[in-house]
Each structure stands twice: as C-alpha cells, then as structure tokens.
Write a structure and sequence with these properties.
Blueprint lengths: L7 E5 L4 H12 L3 E6 L9 E5 L5 H9 L6 E4 L14 H22 L9 E5 L14 H21 L5 E7 L5 H6 L4 H10 L5 H12 L9 E4 L7
Length: 234
C-alpha cells in the first residue's frame, strides 16, 4: 500500500501536460483523483473529470460545491503567452492573470474547508520565471512571481492560525508540454531551435517532483522545488 492509497486529490489542468502526467501517477498509487479541465474526454482513465473554465469565478466555485473531503490540491492549470509589457495584448495579460493567479488563489481558498482536521497539502505549479525574469518573460513572469508570493503568504497565514495544512511550490524551467507551444505561438521556428538545442524537462519529471511533496512524511514541509533541464542555461 502506498502513502497516497485512498487519498482524495484535486488536480487542475488535468487534461494535458504536467497535470495529466500527475493524474496518471496518482491513479497508479491508488489515489482517488478529481481532474479539473475544459476537455473532460482527455483526462486519464480512472480520473473523475470536473468540467470548469478557470477564467470564470462562478465555475471555480462550482468545483467545490459538491466536493467532499480533500487530502491534497495541486494547481497545475496555467496559461503562457509571450506578451511583452511594451507592446503586448492586454487581453493576453488578463487571461494569464485570471488563470495563473486569481483561479489558483480562489482554488486555494475554497479548498481549505475541505481538508480534514489532520491537514493536507496544497501544491502550486509555478515556474523558474517566478524566480528570475528571462529576456522573454513579458507579463508571464509577473504572474509566476505572484504564485510564489501567494504560496508564501498562504503558508504564513495557515501557520498563524495553527493549521496543519502545508503549502508548497514546484518551479520548473522549460517543460515540453502544449503550454510551450502556446508560449511560442508565432515563433514556431524558435521553438524548433530550442527543442533541438537542449533536452527539456518532460511532464513526468515535474509530476515526480510534485509526488515527492505529496508523499513526504507529515513532519516534512517542502517550500519550493526549483528544477530545470541540465542543458538549460538559466
């Protein structure tokens, strides 16, 4: 029996990339997994899909209305556009802020009343772009800096009320997921060159890091895991 056998875990962004890879690992460990997605047909087998658009606050609230106890929440959903401050599209900024920051924060808040008295864990997928701003960071990097700050703020608030719920981040560099195609839209040649120049992280690599947090002993609190391909320069 694994540590996560029979545990109930909610994963956002469950139909692709890191979220989908994590769902597959969790199911293999015997967890009961709920996957939030806009594409329920794409969630892995034995994951219970929850249809929701995370840009809509009402749909986020609906996720938790019929949800029972939770042992963990993992916020994997994210949006990444190359949208510069000097000439980027504010509509792109707004979508990134709604999903990467507001939806994540709302899910964190609404999940709290579903944890048992013994606690549980919240894991937010951030980015190396939440620790330094790369040349193409644009408005995406500020949303990931916000994720890191929200994680730290929530952790401090929970400790101030003696809550046993733990909060962590995982901050990967380039991961070869559909999100990367979104980020490089209009720059497909640059993406091809990037893929040729280095071996990127795979979704499973990040999912295993999240699993490390979820399976850690209760007395072990992990704050943030920074990870990138050994071939990524920064």
């Amino acid at each position: 029996m694994t540590v996560l056998q029979g545990k109930t875990i909610l994963v956002t962004g469950a139909s692709s990339g890191i979220g989908k890879a994590l769902c597959e690992l969790l199911v293999a460990r015997g967890a009961k997994v709920f996957g939030v997605t806009r594409r329920p047909a794409l969630v892995p087998e034995n994951v219970t899909p929850i249809l929701a658009d995370l840009t809509q606050r009402g749909q986020i609230s609906a996720i938790f209305q019929n949800l029972g106890n939770l042992d963990a929440l993992v916020n994997c959903a994210g949006v990444a556009y190359l949208s510069r401050i000097i000439d980027g599209n504010p509509a792109d900024w707004e979508e990134m802020w709604r999903v990467n920051v507001m939806a994540l924060s709302h899910c964190c808040q609404l999940s709290l009343k579903h944890f048992p008295a013994s606690g549980g864990r919240i894991v937010n997928v951030s980015s190396m772009s939440g620790h330094r701003v790369p040349p193409t960071g644009g408005f995406y990097a500020p949303t990931k800096f916000a994720v890191r700050a929200i994680t730290d703020a929530l952790r401090a608030e929970l400790k101030s009320v003696q809550s046993p719920i733990q909060v962590a981040c995982v901050s990967p560099g380039f991961v070869d997921t559909p999100l990367l195609d979104q980020y490089f839209r209009g720059r497909e040649q640059a993406l091809t060159q990037t893929r040729a120049a280095m071996k990127m992280l795979e979704p499973d690599d990040v999912a295993w890091a999240i699993l490390t947090i979820l399976e850690a002993p209760a007395h072990v609190e992990i704050g943030d895991i920074l990870m990138r391909s050994a071939e990524q320069q920064m």
